[in-house]
Amino acid sequence: MFTLAQIELAHANVKTGADFPKYIQEIKQLGVVSFETWVTDSHTQYFGENGFQTRSEPEYDPLAIVEACQKEQFAQYLSSHQKGETDYVAFCNHCAETGVEKWIVDLQKLTCTYYDKAGNAVLLEAIPIAQ
Known Pfam families for this protein (predicted)? Predict the structure, then answer.
């Protein structure tokens, strides 16, 4: 199975949201089938086949996630991030200020779903195939 070190090595090449599809392809090849990232401190739980799991440590001091989700503003921030206009930490701050608590990536379906604090899906998007 994959290791956290392998995932971190692949993630080191991600500078903006524009790099995300290539990262997804790389960790999928390692055997990651899904992962869940928590905006509060960016810790991530990675899942593989046969119940395999590993977890990353927090990447920054905890952010407060607002209660009321602002879906339209979040979608604008996400679009900017995917165009490479913001870095990862800025994107996480934008998630927190618009009420997005976490996202779950399904590498088999190639989807990323963002959730609010109540567990409601805020946005579901298809992950493009890296070129």
Answer: DUF1398
Q: Tell me, yes or no, whether 96 lies in a domain.
A: yes
Domain of 115, CATH number, reads 3.30.1810.10
Indicate yes or no: pTM above 0.85: yes
Under 8 Å CB-to-CB from 51, ≥6 apart: which residues? none
Backbone angles phi, psi at 105, to 5 degrees: -105, 130
107 neighbors 37 (Cβ within 8 angstroms):
no
How confident is the model over 47-85, as pLDDT tens digits?
A: 999 999 999 999 999 999 999 999 999 999 999 988 889
**First-to-final CA distance of the chain:** 26
